[in-house]
Amino acid sequence: MAFTLLSDLKAGRCSNTAEVRLLRVWEARNINKGMELMSLDMLLIDENSTVVHGTVSALLQLRFRPRMTEGSVYTLSGFDVTRSSPKYRLSDAPVAIRFNDGTEFEKLSTTSRTIPTEHFRFRPYDQILGLANTGRQLPDVMGELSAIRSTITDRIPGAQRVMLNLRLESDTTVCVSIFDSLALAFHSKLDVYGKEPRIVVVTAVNPKLVSGKLYLNGTSATRVFFDSETAVGVDALARLPSGGTDQAGSSSKVVHAQKIEPMTVSELNQFIFTADPQIIEFLCTAKVTEIQLDEGWCYIGCSTCSKKLIREETSFTCVPCNETNAVAKLKYRVILSVSDDTGAAAFLGFDEEIASLTHVLASDAAHIVGIGTNAQVDIDLPRSLANLVGSTYTFQLRLKDFNFGPNHRSFTISRIFPARDLAPKPTFSDGGEDTDQSIPQSVATGLDVGAAIVNNGADQLTDADGARMVHEAAASGEDAGEATARKKARVE
Ligand SMILES: [Zn+2]
């Protein structure tokens, strides 16, 4: 069988054999379809350093997956060659490879060819900026780690997100933002590594401009490498002023706090039409003008898992719990009309967030009458909900892919902070030795939690800022809902 270089591939079926190294392999999942597996994707490289994007459909992936080991060399033949997609490109090659029924992909124990073991597509800062919001390229980035900000802590519930500040060799600092399973994987890697890395390589990032600030968002193809895990990392370490030796006693770069950008209602409304679909959080301070009742204010949920129950003739079924006789509990699902000086929008709040505002559980505010298909709720609009109208809150909103575009209906609330009578920003000594107990009690209230995050404009983290953010994170560990609930109890 004839041998081919990847650079010689032409569109159509290829019966020649290529010899390639499997650089990386990852799962592409559809977040709009319950994370359904779409394909197994990979980067293949040959002896001429040509990198080609390869794809195995979800139907065929089980056949190839068991023999796929990153770093190994394979012979590849009997595959389809297609034009590269112009979107989210991971290679500079004009073609891509698609595995088919007849594809042969055999691991080689040895090879006489010299095939690179790594390949990155670093871009200068100006080019990364030019790629922002275009969705054309997913470049790689390498820099010296200057800060790790994380929302994965025991104290701050909600979205899992890690932001890494990396100083590029051009001395510009960029912010890499990774979410959910990638964020968890990053923390596991950090734990195993046992120390804070100095040089970090992040692959396949999607540059985004949000409110004028550049974020390099992680994608399903993103990998993170520390220090000497890559050859480019070894070189970069050697170029650092200290020559890559450990600086004993250097201060921690980990800052357990989050900074979520504030936006006005009109900025939010614009963002979902102008930005590409993504998962992102914002803060928005707005006044509740109405409780929308077209879809009711509650749903009948499972008392175990809170998911919506299916109404049968004389019972409720919970699919996640696999329970045909589930115990029902009323849960909030409330659409709030809100507005500020700039515009109006609809915010969707679920059980816990709404209960933290009303201080009344949905199941205490009304009762389910009847069972199964006949079940009804005995109150049209509880007073505790109606009383929210006219109040102003700071809402933390979590936007997902389906929020974007013309079918947009409402923003989902992930947290709510009371925004009335904003307390002055708490001040702390810079000693950094305060324990949780020494934080003044007045700081640990729901009011201050909102103020602390809204006011936190620290883009460049100094050591003092870092210490303060740690304190604020600790302070916010006091549950906002509980704190205000206690206040109310005292008044009554
Ligand atoms: Zn359930």
Automatic annotation (TrEMBL):
On whether Transcription is a keyword of this UniProt record, the answer is no
What ranges does the record give for the region Disordered, renumbered to this chain? Answer: 472-492
Keyword line: DNA-binding, Metal-binding, Zinc, Zinc-finger
Does Metal-binding show up as a keyword for this record? Answer: yes
Gene Ontology MF annotations: DNA binding; zinc ion binding
PANTHER family, per database record:
OS03G0429900 PROTEIN
Q: Which family does it belong to?
A: Belongs to the replication factor A protein 1 family.
Please give the name of this protein: (rape) hypothetical protein
